[in-house]
Amino acid sequence: MKLFQTNRAGAAWLLAPRRAVLLISAIALCSAQSQQIQWGLTLVNINNPITPIVVTNGDGSISITAGGGDTYGAPDSFTYAYQQVTGDFDIRVRVMDVTATDPAGQDSPKGSLMVRATLDPGSFDYQISALPLAPSGRNGQIESIGRLDAAIDTDDLPGKALNYGGDTTDFGYCTYPDLWLRIQRRGDKFMSYFATTNITDFPAGASPFGTNGWQLLTVMPAGTNFPKTVYVGLSTVAHNSVISDTTHTVTSTYASYGPTPTPPSIPSTNGVAVPSANGPGSFPNKQVLAINWDVSLPADGLGYPSDIVQSSQGAPQQIVWNSGGYGAVARDVIADVNSETPGGFSVARYQAGAFDFLLSPRDPVQALQNLGPYSNPLRERFGAGDLSVPASQAWAPSPNYGFVMTTVRKNGQAWNDQSPFFYAASYVQLDGIATGEGYDMIGGHFRGGQFYTRSTKLVTGSVTTGGPTSGSLQRCAMPISLAWFPYDQGWKAGYIDASSVDIANPGRPHWKHGDGWGLHSGTAVTGFTAKGGQSFYNSPTNILTWVDTTGGGTYSGLAILQLPGVNSATGGMLLTVGNDENNGIRGPSANNAALPDGSGWYVAVRDIETSKADPTVYATTGGSDAGSSFSFLYIPWNADNLIGGHIRGTNAAVIQSAGSFNVQHLSTGRYALTIPAKAGTNGVLLLQNSGYLANQPTGLTNVVDTSLLSYEYGGTNTPANAFIIESRYIDVSGGGEGVVTLRDADFNFVWVDFQNPLAPPGTLQPVLSIRKSGTNVIVSWTNGPGFILQQAGALSARTLWSNLGTQNPQTVAIGTGPQFFRVISP
After folding, report:
1. Cβ-proximal residues to 119 (8 Å cutoff; 6+ apart), any chain
2. Is 178 strand, coil or helix?
3. 427 with 578: CB under 8 angstroms?
4. Residue 682, phi-psi category: left (phi > 0), alpha (psi -120 to 50), beta (remainder)
5. What is the mean pLDDT of each run of 10 residues along the chain (826 residues)?
């Protein structure tokens, strides 16, 4: 909320805004051993006989000398310097040294960053620790362990490092004094990171190195064992085999304890910080970002090869799509931004239906200079990007930070590329090999991205000699819409790996890229308690079940997704998208349907080509099939600024909805959606097939629909001020590739407004603005309807505010004295 004051002349001053802030406090423990130290921390011994010594060094660092037994196994015995933190946090510390009196004998004394539920020696905890150099047998390893299940006690955690299931690095990562440890809480998820001058990654390329480049180590669900308010701080332990040992100690030196800067990483390349003129824009974790891409081919069908700026191109040649290779001008495309969230996107590399999109470019105008028609001399569609390329001076979107959804934005198209008229589908490929380069959101290192979009033909159709072949991936030039949902807002979202990924345990669910990577939001697992051994701590086992469709232990792309505390029939919408084309020629689809009892959703991931004749055939990731991996996002009906609906396909009846809109059933498979005062350039429309087949296969009642959705706004459509949505499937009853045919289908739609995008419930605050107009001021605010404008003549502890109503904007006469305005929720 923002407050403004005006004077008689109509000038306005922005008063101090009221903002939600992270409250961090240090509360002294009622113990004779506790004391206040640097950074407002409270020092206390927990089950430790040695009185700690704290020395403040000339450079502002502190050295804590302590004894203690261990923080691996109960009861804990260590020295703790802590603060209490409520809600989300992101805290880091520099560990300058860890020195033990007998490093070989003590083996693994620690200087750690720790989170605890309580100060009890047996408390649930989570930590990342720096260990001594040789002659300690740990020789500079970094480890991340935790007590998540009281019955199992402290345990190794799934991670992406080399040892103990992924929670411990190789030797030599503690590059004192340049070692940083970091713990982040995002919803119900804890994450541990480190930054070091050791630039060796494990797995190779998994988490890029760089100057202050954070490497993600482990991810852990807080579950129900960690309360909203926890203890966070520095744990120092000597690792004595006998707790009562008062001879052997460890001295750990800490510096720069406190909140992690935002963005957390200094952008870098080859381990060197990049100049500010080459860095990205603001870190894209504050709001939903969306874009409408325009995609076309030239009218004469002639195009140019890749990797050459347009001003240096030779003579154009005939574009021939789906020819099986990348040579000549195959897959050329003219791309541009139709409309977007201001400053939201750029793309250094684009071809066919693939956009290696990036987020939040430093210079949003210059970042688009490589797009547009052939008349643009700076057009470059297939560059990897480098530090000097404005399109690459942006963030490469990370599945650790958000969810991506795409929808086809044209109801069929024909180009002069020797191919007939076609219909399309789109999906988001996640394989970590996008060529277009930007800055990694975790490590800050300049690298290729992990996401890119795909657009695919549903049916290729007849071709002329030398034209497209059907044996290759059937890419296509088609306008699409795309939206990015950052986890930090609180969305329930995640990326599920293929059903076949765990050979030893068929059908066991995993997060994409392995559970230690944490490709999900913390809120996705809110309400669950961590149970089981190491491999279950960060598993989606509690929310996803792969379905054995044959009864013989064979799992493919059919799953049941359940979110704790969510009624799938009445609570909100589920968006799902396939993430692995594998060897398929048309890529994956990922439709869903709510279970009748509201306990969850069926999610059906199919290979578009192999499933068109039989809807009970699901993606297997085998042979020429698409993969069964997919991502999901849950949008509750009470989300802020939401305009959306669950629509019945047969008659366009609104089953559930939010916001103001109207939808009509024009004819079989065709719908007209109108949103007051919204056109195609005001936002993005996301579409999701969300129902069951009207004609179920014999003996079945729960087969999810196979229809694919697209839309377009205006043009020659009637009505011209509507979004025309079409639902189509591939009818193979006549043989051959089949015919793309209209069919009614239940669907969800979500409107993502460019100026006032949706957000999780209760996360948005209105932003108030004021301008003079003659003898009046015009007061307006963002973030949707329903807020009440109030006015007062003075500010004090007893200010009486008068209501001016919900009209937005409002014109108010300039008075003779001060005027203050605010907006409140009803």
Report:
1. 29, 44, 46, 80, 82, 231
2. coil
3. yes
4. alpha
5. 32 28 28 79 94 96 96 93 95 98 94 97 97 95 94 90 91 95 93 88 63 85 91 97 92 97 84 87 94 95 90 90 63 94 94 92 96 96 86 94 97 88 96 88 88 93 56 86 96 96 92 84 86 84 93 93 96 98 94 97 97 96 92 97 98 97 98 97 98 95 97 90 97 92 98 96 80 86 73 82 88 88 80
Yes or no: say if 358 and 346 are a contact pair by the CB < 8 Å rule.
yes
With CA atoms as reference, report the closest residue to 127 among 46, 71, 70.
Answer: 71
CB 510 within 8 A of CB 178: no
| Contact assessment for residue 224 and residue 528, using Cβ atoms and an 8 Å cutoff | yes
Q: How far is CA 582 from CA 429, 520, 623, 680, 777, in A?
A: 9, 22, 9, 33, 59
- Tell me the C-alpha distance between 107 and 227, whole Å: 33
How far apart, in whole angstroms, are the C-alpha atoms of residue 447 and residue 705?
39
Contact between 233 and 27 (Cβ < 8 Å): no
- What is the rounded distance in angstroms from the CA atom of residue 209 to the CA atom of residue 694? 52
Stretch (H or E) spanning 684: strand 683-689
Half-sphere exposure of 23 (CA within 13 A, CB side): 7
Rg (C-alpha) for the chain, rounded Å, is: 29
The percent of residues in the chain predicted with pLDDT above 70, rounded, is: 92
pLDDT at 624: 85
Q: How far apart are CA 444 and CA 428, in angstroms?
A: 23
Burial class (CB in 10 A: 0-12, 13-18, 19+), 280: buried
Could you give the CA distance from residue 515 to residue 513 in angstroms, rounded to a whole number? 7
Give yes or no for a cis peptide into 719 (omega within 30° of 0): yes
Q: Where do the H-state alpha helices sit in 68-215?
A: 103-106
334: which strand partners?
296
Q: So what's the pLDDT on residue 306?
A: 85
Task: Give dist(CA 45, CA 596) in Å, integer.
Answer: 54
**Is the bond preceding 135 in cis, omega lying within 30 degrees of 0?**
yes
DSSP secondary structure string for all residues of 201-237: -SSTTSS---TT--EEEEEEE-TTTS-SEEEEEEEEE
Using alpha carbons, select from 183, 175, 344, 149 the residue that is nearest to residue 258. 183
Strands 35-36 and 62-66: unpaired
Per-residue pLDDT at 280: 95
- 478: helix, coil or strand? coil
Which tokens sit at 409?
């934005």
Q: How far is CA 799 from the centre of its chain?
A: 42
Sequence letter at residue 278: N
Quickly count: other Cβ atoms within 10 Å of residue 378's Cβ: 14
Annotate 382-402 with DSSP letters as a single string: B----TT-GGGSSEEP-TTTE
∠ CA 172-263-538, rounded to 5°: 60
The span from the CA of 231 to the CA of 255, in Å, is 19
pTM of the model: 0.88
φ, ψ of residue 540 to 5 degrees: the values are -80, 20
8 Å CB contact between 115 and 127: yes
Helix segments in 271-396, DSSP class H: none
| β-strands 78-86, 24-25 pairing | antiparallel
Calpha distance 627→642 (Å, rounded) = 32
pLDDT score for 270: 76
